[in-house]
Fold this protein.
Amino acid sequence: MTTPPATGELSAAFDATIAADQRIEPRDWMPDGYRRTLVRQIAQHAHSEIIGMQPEGNWLTRAPSLRRKAILLAKVQDEAGHGLYLYSAAETLGADRADLTAKLIDGAQKYSSIFNYPSLTFADVGVIGWLVDGAAICNQVPLCRSSFGPYARAMIRVCKEESFHQRQGYELLMTMMGGTVEQRDMVQDAVDRWWWPALMMFGPPDDASPNTEQSMRWRIKRHTNDELRQRFVDMSIPQAQALGVTVPDPELAWNDERGHYDFGTPDWHEFATVIAGNGPCNTERIAVRRAAHEDGAWVREAAAAFARREGASR
Ligand code: FAQ
């Protein structure tokens, strides 16, 4: 019988794996804080994908053509798939999926602030694809190099699909911008409403982000919230110009010295209000998720009964 390694040795092996930029796998020893941080972030991410189906799902029955409906349906189904990969990644850390769902519905775990805003017109579908999926890609491409193997691997597929989502949003907006004055006004109005919430997706400013420093030391996160927000602004402004829309920020200006756009400060009070559960749609989003969960109870019971029967007949 081999003697199990002492915690000191295990901890040194963990540190060495992180320092060598290799992956931690579920079977490996890891500090409790590392596991807790990952479960928190991955669960929040999974919940965001699932709740994120609602603003666009709102337009499935009213898509203006069969083509737009098929594209939107595929996108919304992809988001469900992303939620499933992520819940599976959380399970490899010992989290229980039913428990995570209960925590979402009870408000004990967060989901992205962005999904607490309403989608008022079909232009919002395009802007969600362009800006919300665009911000998601900006944030998630570096997560493909996250130190926890199952999370990093899930992100590779998620990012590929998000790229298609962003593209379909931009193409939809391009089409609308080539349409009537009313259509162009709808696009501008949607950009005006989603721009600041999209910037808030990256999380609080670095000097108010309690988790970033440790998460970067553990190489769960690769960049700070402000670094990624800047990258997103730099990437989006030329796209806005090509589209022919403006963003609602009087402070936006190219800064030659920095080689980046300067931009205004998001309303952090609004952000705090939304993540505290008091945004425009928080109550509705959770009520819809709770109803879907309760309505699906019979499916879970039937699946469990089938699995028991299969197990007994083996
Ligand atoms: N909303 O210390 P930090 C998508 C919380 S997926 C709500 O900076 P951290 C796809 C944070 O949890 C979008 N809460 O935290 C799609 C923490 O709370 P806690 C989701 C937020 O973790 C597209 C506290 O504030 N993406 O869009 C937000 O180091 C279209 C302090 O913050 C991910 O989840 C927020 N925006 O950095 C689907 C990506 N920001 O638990 C459908 C993975 C922060 O300490 C349609 N996650 N908080 O009480 C991450 O990269 C990170 O978790 C951050 C936050 C960057 C979001």
